[in-house]
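Dear support,

Our group has been running a series of protein-ligand predictions, and this particular one with glutamic acid is the one our PI (initials K.S.) wants archived with full inputs and outputs. We had some confusion internally about which version of the output was final, so please treat the block below as the authoritative record. The input we submitted was:
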Amino acid sequence: MSQLESAVKEIAEEMRQRPDRGEVATYIPELARADPNAFGLAVVDADGNVVYAGDADTPFSIQSVSKVFTLTIALGMVGDRLWNRVGREPSGSAFNSIVQLERERGIPRNPFINAGAIAVTDVILSGHQPREALGEILRFMQFLADDPSITIDKAVAASENRTGFRNRALANYMKSFGVIENPVDFTLGVYFHHCAIAMSCRQLAMAGRFLAYRGRNPSTGLQVVQPDRARRINAIMLTCGHYDGSGEFAYHVGLPGKSGVGGGILAIAPGKASIAVWSPGLDAAGNSHLGRIALEELTKRMGWSIFGA
Ligand code: GLU
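Confirmed final output from the archive:
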C-alpha cells in the first residue's frame, strides 16, 4: 500500500471513531437531514490515481464549494472586469454578513462570501435565461468530474428558496447599488440551485484537478483555464475560502481550500493533489469540523502544506 493509501485509510478510520463531530447546518431545513456520522475522503494525485475511503461515493450538497466553479466560469466570461463587481480581500466576517456591504457601497469583499457569490452568479446569468445559466454551471461540473450523472438536489434548492431570507436581503441590498443586473429572484434562483448540486468526494476531487495542475486536466490534457488563472483562484481559496475561519484553515492545513455548509471541503495541493473531504458537522465558522482536522492530518503526513513540511 502506498503512503497516500495508508494515510487516507487511517485518517478515515480515525475520523469515523471521533466523538466530536460539530453541528449539522439547520438553517437550510433540508440540510438538517444529513447524517452527522458520515465521513468521506478522496484524493486524486498527479498520475490520476484516485485514493478514497469512508463515504467517498455518497453524494452530498456541495453548497459553497460550487462558488469555486462559478468564479471560474464568470472569469472565463468577463475576465478581470469581474473585479469591478466584487473584491478579493478576506472579509473577516461571517459568510452571510451584511455589515460590510453598506460601508463598501454594495461591493462584496470577495467572491466566496454569500454576497460575492451571488454577484458572481448574476454575472453568469446576464444575457441568459436562468435555466441556461444553471445548465452551463451543471455541465461544467459534469465535464470537470468526467461524470454526466451529477445532478442538482431540487429538494435542497427549494428548501433554501423558502428560507433564504438573508441571501434575499443581501441580493436586494446589492441591487440597490446597481451591483446586481438581473431580477433578484432570477439571480437567487440560479444561486440556490448551483449551491444544491450534489456530488460525492470522489466526483469533487476529480472536478478540482485543473486547479492542482496549472489549469490543466491531467488525464485528458485539456487546458481548462490558463495557469495564471488557476494560481489566482487558488490564492483566493487560500485567503477567503473558509470565511472568517480562513486564517485558521491556512494555519492548520496550509492549502487553498473551499468549504460548504453541507460539510464538504475541496482542497488543492498544487502540483500534488486535488482533495475532497466531507463530514456534515460544522464548527462555529460554518466549516466542516472533522473535514478540517482530516485535511490537517493528511497534509502533515504527506508534507503537502504550501508553507513547507
Ligand atoms: N447556499 C448557502 C447559503 O447561501 C451556502 C453557504 C455555504 O455553503 O457556506 O447560505
